[in-house]
Amino acid sequence: MVQTELAGIMTAEKEEDEGYLDLTGGTQSLVLAKEILPTRGQYEHAWFRVTLTVTDERQDIEPQLEPTISRHEFRGQADAELEAIRFLHGDSIQGYIGFNQFCDTPASPDSDWDPTDCYVTIQVAYDPGLTCKRTTFLKSDRSPDPALGYITEFPQLDLQVDYRGHIVGTEIEQRFPKAIEYCLPVSNSALVVLDPDSEGTADAGYEYETGRNLLAIKPTGEIAWTVDQVTNSHDTVYIHTYPWRVSTRVFSKLRSLSEGPNIIAELDPETGEVITVDI
Fold it and tell me: How many domains is the chain built from?
């Protein structure tokens, strides 16, 4: 039975001890051995999506260690002096997490939270980009991974997004003449905003039109729809800057190509049709 669970986006801030990386994200932190991390991400400043699940019984999870994802199950051992749960594989310590990380994470209602007798499953997905935008580590040393800050994985959609203007789906890929400014997963597609003031891939197959810089990409890599151009009564063209969602509704903020206020449009997530526009 699941006792508690943590999940979030983390970065390897520093090497805590030799062979161990200190992962932090928001208010969460833990330490993991490099050897259990995805093989492409065993270095400082790598980005990860981490899910940690504590159970009261062994789940018999098969170990997985690949270039972009890893998953391991360990025996949890409480260490009162360290004030943390150690992750043990035999007699080897593979990392630990502080008790304080669980203060705001209640256990299952019908389970007693007992860190002295537990099992810990850790899944780590390597992601050198951020969920929606390019990482702030663009000026970091790229020698460990030349794609640092450019490529991000969306495993829930089976899409790989290269913010330089390239998306790879399960069946086809898309190359754009503009760089990707923003990417947001929405139900069964990813909303992609192209940066009109940039250059994308040299061999682009997508024909860019001014004002139509927001589109939806299916998991296959196919384009589900491209938004229609938004103009006002003076024929001023607006450019999409970023989308967001509220429950099942999708909105987008737009800026004018000339002087004028920003506007907000509500879009049909299935077709891209502009439903309403508010200035």
Answer: 2
**What average pLDDT score do residues 164-180 get?**
93
* Residue 249 in domain: yes
Say which range, 32-36, 55-59, 181-185, has the weakest mean pLDDT. 181-185
Look at the pTM and tell me if it is higher than 0.70: no
3-state SS string for the chain: CEEEEEEEEEEEEEEEECCEEEEEECCEEEEEEHHHCCHHHCCCCCEEEEEEEEECCCCCCCCEECCCEEEEEEEEEEECCCCEEEEEECCEEEEEEEHHHHCCCCCCCCCCCCCCCEEEEEEEEECCCCCCCCCCCCCCCCCCCCCCCCEEEECCCCEEEECCCEEECCCCEEECCCCEEEEEEECCEEEEEECCCCCCCCCCCCCCCCCCCEEEECCCCCEEEECCCEECCCCCEEEEEEEEEECCEEEEEEEECCCCCCEEEEECCCCCCEEEEEC
Same domain, 116 and 214: no
